[in-house]
């Protein structure tokens, strides 16, 4: 039975496995999975005004302006499904975003309970992003060698043809790694200082990583 909301930040560089693991954590702990990357890709696919604004930033591997992402986050946090708590995947990415999230949660008498950091070496990140294939219809994520679709080309779930993400090309991958180190990595110190950071090895199979993340959640009481 859910007794109180739980708010879990999942941190890690691009390609670390945040999306893969956030889905599993959300299911295991009955939380809403909020992926700002998925929300933005959905806006881009639907050709909305925020999507049109975000597209060029994303394709270059740069951060989308805080106001655009902040509005999407606010909508999600105020949804009924968010009342049980959330796994934040890809948010916050800057100190300003971290403070915005703190403020929004404080208004709901909540705070970040734990920040889980997925640690993966750069060479592995590049291999993971270059081999990633995504389903444009249902959002399922595969990898050409680590987690291939059954028929090699189409989504196991809905049968749609899998695609390479627009930002999974060389130039954008390099820029995303650079931006992560400059803007997002400093958040580790912020959460370490609060005593809520758990550093998790993100290498090994997705099952192994999931097990370590569950261990990292042990200190959190619901
Ligand atoms: P976003 O979608 O958040 O991208 P990201 O942070 O770069 O992370 P990725 O989605 O690339 O990787 P992931 O860690 O989720 O890994 P995954 O599970 O897919 O953001 C995209 C863009 O949107 C940003 O660049 C920015 O422009 C914008 N944006 C988003 N949020 C923003 C914000 N808050 N502010 C401003 N702008 C924002 O796994 C990767 C691959 O590895 C997959 O193929 C997977 O199958 C495979 N894999 C996973 N686990 C394993 C494993 N254990 N072993 C082997 N392979 C594995």
Molecular structure report:
By secondary structure, the protein is of the alpha/beta class. It folds into 2 domains: 6-120 and 178-216, P-loop containing nucleotide triphosphate hydrolases (Rossmann fold, 3-Layer(aba) Sandwich), CATH 3.40.50; 125-168, no CATH class. The chain is built from 9 helices and 7 strands, in the order E-H-E-H-H-H-E-H-E-H-E-E-H-H-E-H. The protein has a 5-stranded parallel beta sheet with strand order 2-3-1-4-7, with helices on both faces. It has a two-stranded antiparallel sheet with strand order 5-6. The N and C termini lie close together (10 Å). BIS(adenosine)-5'-pentaphosphate binds at residues 12, 14-20, 36-37, 40, 57-58, 61-64, 69, 90-91, 93, 97, 128-129, 131-132, 141-143, 146-147, 167, 176, 205-206, 209.
Structure class: alpha/beta
Number of strands: 7
| The top level CATH class name of the largest domain | Alpha Beta
CATH architecture of the largest domain: 3-Layer(aba) Sandwich
For the biggest β-sheet, the strand order reads 2-3-1-4-7
Summed over residues and divided by their number, the pLDDT gives a mean of 96
Q: Low-confidence runs (pLDDT<50, min 5 residues)?
A: none
Could you give the distance between the termini?
10 Å
CATH homologous superfamily assignment of the largest domain: P-loop containing nucleotide triphosphate hydrolases
What best-fitting shape do the alpha-carbon axes yield? globular
What's the number of helices?
Answer: 9
Rg value: 17 Å
Determine the CATH topology of the largest domain: Rossmann fold
Helix content range of the residues, please?
Answer: 40-55%
Bound molecules: BIS(adenosine)-5'-pentaphosphate
Task: Indicate how many domains the architecture comprises.
Answer: 2
